[in-house]
């Protein structure tokens, strides 16, 4: 059973055939798709899935804490499965590609900054917006 579908079952969500298809498409996505792309992929499996069904389903998954919505500055809400493992995002402004990464150094620095300001960091979201070095006139390290 795909990960999102399993999480839906754990939370007691009613899983119709179309919701199962959308859950599978989301589980198999590694590119943070928007609703239109999810719909395109879902109708390739079940041509009877409407765009409205995709919108309602991603909203349900988000409200249930199964998926997370992102705004990467391109005017489209994009989705990914909520993960137990924290990661951050680098968004390539030329191609729109979203790269997931982790950095212990960044994690440590964020905690230090919060502590220095008198806070304990409990959560964060980091999104870096960048262009390839060759596009910015620089050279790669």
Described by strand count, sense and barrel closure, the largest sheet is:
3 strands, mixed
pLDDT averaged residue by residue: 88
Tally of extended strands? 5
Number of helices: 6
| Helical residue percent band | 40-55%
What radius of gyration results from the CA coordinates? 18 Å
Element-level helix/strand string = HHHHEEEEHEH
Task: Kindly name the structural category.
Answer: alpha+beta
What is the overall shape?
globular
Read across the widest sheet, the strand sequence of neighbours is 4-3-5
**Multimeric organization:** single chain
Residue stretches low in confidence (pLDDT < 50, at least 5 long) are none
Describe what you observe in this structure.
This protein is 43% helix and 16% strand. By secondary structure, the protein is α+β, with helices and mostly antiparallel strands. The chain has a three-stranded mixed β-sheet with strand order 4-3-5, with no helix packed on it. A two-stranded antiparallel ribbon has the order 1-2. The longest helix is centred in the middle third of the chain and has 13 residues.
Give a short synopsis of this structure:
The protein is an alpha+beta fold and 141 residues long. Helices cover 43% and strands 16% of the residues. The longest helix has 13 residues, at 51-63.
Q: How are the SSEs ordered, and which strands pair?
A:
Elements (H helix, E strand, L loop, with lengths): L2 H8 L6 H12 L6 H11 L5 H13 L3 E5 L5 E5 L6 E5 L5 E4 L2 H13 L10 E4 L2 H4 L5
Parallel strand pairs: 3-5
Antiparallel strand pairs: 1-2, 3-4
Helix pairs in contact: 2-3, 3-4
